[in-house]
Design a protein that fits this description.
The complex is a heterodimer. Chain A is mainly alpha-helical. Chain A has two domains: about 1-50; about 55-275, Orthogonal Bundle (MetI-like fold). Chain A is about 75% helix and about 0% strand. Chain A has twelve helices and two strands, in the order ββαααααααααααα. Chain A has a two-stranded antiparallel ribbon. In chain A, a hairpin with a 2-residue loop joins strand 1 and strand 2 (about 15). By secondary structure, chain B is of the alpha/beta class. Chain B has two domains: about 60-135 and about 250-285, Periplasmic binding protein-like II (D-Maltodextrin-Binding Protein, domain 2); about 140-240, Periplasmic binding protein-like II (D-Maltodextrin-Binding Protein, domain 2), CATH 3.40.190.10. Chain B has helices at about 10-30, 70-80, 95-105, 115-125, 170-185, 195-200, 210-215, 225-230, 265-275, 280-285; strands at about 60-65, 85-95, 110, 130-135, 140-145, 165, 200-205, 220-225, 235-240, 250-255. In chain B, helix 2 links the parallel strand 1 and strand 2. The longest helix of chain B is centred in the first third of the chain and has 24 residues, at about 10-30. The chains are: A mainly alpha, B alpha/beta. The interface of A and B includes residues 13, 20, 39 and 130 of A.
Chain lengths: ~280, ~290
């Protein structure tokens, strides 16, 4: 009833007070400014990259191809590990209550809010040569994690896996547990229930988690630098190669921009494919 | 529904179209722009070397090599105390990184590099005044305190050790590789020395302090840093001197940048370091005096 003020207009969508009409352009302006803020950096990257030219010959160098191949296979391995270990954890967290669940929840989500460099330092204190686990392992087997490709995967896993677990967990939560119980009473095993009931419904959410996890692993920098080091072919992933270009490597600034363009293209392609795959699916955020 | 705060469908469509058009326009404009930088205000045309008579005022930013972190921080405070009204801010990092940042327009007033090569990267674009050498330093091998894996310079070639160096463009990374090349050519050690040592390389770090950190934490078995850096971590690392006939002397040049908005303060800081009380501060931290001009 308070909407019936002098000056209110009756529009096709309802009664609108003068305050509403004043605010609409402000909101439009703010939205425009924010959108521009996101568009301009990519416009700048594309502009500089095209002006530099010879993107292909820059990408064809040993340093660029080594970084690209290393990035691709370590991030793929990270995603597979995240799916393998993260799916049961996500299902457990979605369906069961147990003492300490809130704590487990918090620890799994922690790397999402933690700065990646902190994750790197943390990995060092646990798995480094003088670390909690690293020191005994070094003493008994002589194996060290640092400066190895294993360390690269570990750094990517700790920062990226939580994105998959979180997405998978919310995907499982949104399903009707009743259906799983019915399947159980009808005699289906856990595995069969998972493949025939849960997966067909939850796959868009799981896919969203996979995309996020993979993207985060591909872009990981801080933890990798601190825990794994920087050596072409072994630990220098694409983000490390790009940052070394800013430190004067032979790849150079132009090479860094070329690599950045490549990463940008890959990210765009994955996003578009993902959106196409889950088009018009109500289960996807 | 009555009372629903929803934008009219027509307005929403127009707003969406405008957003898309503006986005496309931004890409086109960016592609068309040549992007020439705005002209900076000309600094007062005082010839370099003229001591100013008026009290100094203003804040400057000094981009300095990572190895200068402790010495320059103290020198900056001393300079501010001697010249109230001035403020000195520092950005420490690998000289190669800083040089690139300066060439990309970073707002530095002074550049202090750990070698001439990175200073040349800056001077060849014409943004700096003539460089002045202000200090020297000595590279040294460092190992984690108490480690028995590497005990001499020659041990660097032992197979299986973990060697940490700075990236090749970083001054200390370049000096290290020069030293290894000299040792291979010297005749006393095997001509494969450099190759054997570099086969042990496990990481190309971003700057000298990163190398030091990897040795402090025990991750690496040996690294090459400046003796001044090793001194800052005396409890966690042990220095192993490099034989004099293979070692190089690191020469640090400094230059005032022409686009500085407080050229007088910048030049005064340069004088402070080169010939003023700054010299004593650098010596205190283990830096050597500059060689003959």
């Amino acid at each position: 009833m308070s909407r019936l003020r002098a000056g209110s207009k009756l529009t096709s969508t309802g009664l609108r007070a003068p305050a509403d009409r004043a605010i609409a352009p402000v909101i439009a302006l703010l939205t425009l400014a924010f959108a521009l803020f996101f568009v301009l950096p990519f416009a700048g990257l594309i502009d500089r990259g095209l002006r530099n030219g010879h993107v292909w010959s820059l990408l064809n160098t040993a340093q660029a191809t080594d970084a690209l191949i290393l990035s691709l296979w370590t991030s793929t391995l990270t995603v597979l590990l995240a799916i393998l270990f993260g799916t049961p954890v996500a299902y457990l967290l979605a369906r069961h209550r147990f003492p300490g669940k809130a704590l487990v929840d918090a620890f799994i989500e922690l790397p999402i809010v933690l700065p990646p460099t902190v994750a790197g330092v943390a990995l060092l204190t646990a798995f480094g040569r003088k670390g909690l686990i690293g020191e005994p392992i070094d003493r008994w087997t002589g194996f060290t994690f640092g400066f190895s490709t294993t360390a690269v995967v570990m750094a990517q896993l700790i920062v990226a896996a939580p994105f998959y677990v979180r997405a998978a967990k919310s995907g499982f939560e949104r399903l009707d547990a009743q259906m799983e119980r019915v399947a159980f009473t009808l005699g289906a095993s856990r595995a069969r229930t998972f493949y025939r009931i849960i997966l067909p419904q939850a796959w868009p959410a799981l896919l969203a988690g996979v995309v996020l996890c993979w993207a985060r692993a591909l872009g990981e920098l801080g933890a990798t630098l601190i825990f794994a080091g920087n050596l072409q072919g072994t630990t220098q992933t694409m983000p490390l190669a790009i940052i070394q270009a800013f430190e004067g490597s032979t790849l150079g600034l132009d090479g860094a921009i070329a690599l950045s363009l490549l990463l940008l293209a890959v990210a765009l392609a994955v996003l578009v494919l993902f959106r196409l795959a889950v088009a018009r699916n109500p289960a996807v955020p | 529904m009555i009372g629903a705060r929803v934008m009219r469908p027509a307005v929403a469509r127009v707003a969406g179209l405008l957003l898309a058009l503006l986005g496309a326009a931004a890409v086109l404009v960016a592609a068309a722009c040549t992007g020439s930088p705005l002209p900076t205000p000309a600094a007062t045309r005082v010839p370099p070397g003229t001591p100013s008579t008026a009290p100094l005022e203003g804040s400057i930013t000094v981009f300095a090599a990572a190895s200068l972190s402790d010495a320059f921080t103290e020198a900056g405070k001393a300079f501010e105390a001697a010249n109230p009204g001035t403020k000195v801010a520092f950005s420490f990092g690998a000289s190669s990184t800083l040089a690139i940042q300066i060439n990309e327009g970073a707002p530095a007033d002074v550049f202090a590099s750990a070698d001439g090569a990175q200073m040349t990267v800056v001077t060849k674009t014409g943004v700096a005044e003539a460089p002045v050498e202000f200090a020297t330093n000595v590279p040294v091998v460092v190992v984690p305190a108490g480690s028995k894996v590497v005990r001499s310079f020659q041990d660097l070639a032992k197979p299986g050790i973990k060697l940490i160096l700075a990236a090749p463009a970083v001054p200390i990374g370049n000096y290290a590789r020069e030293i290894l090349a000299k040792a291979s050519a010297g005749g006393a050690i095997s001509p494969n020395f450099a190759a054997q040592v570099l086969a042990n390389l496990k990481s190309n770090e971003a700057n000298v302090r990163s190398v030091l950190a990897k040795i402090q934490t025990g991750e690496g078995d040996a690294g090459i840093v400046y003796t001044t850096d090793a001194a800052t971590a005396a409890k966690q690392v042990t220095q192993i001197p490099i034989p004099r006939q293979y070692n190089v002397v690191a020469k640090y040049p400094m230059a005032v940048l022409k686009h500085s908005s407080h050229v007088d303060v910048a030049r005064a800081f340069e004088r402070f370091i080169v010939s003023g009380p700054g010299r004593a501060i650098l010596t205190k931290y283990g830096f050597g005096s500059p060689g003959p001009a």
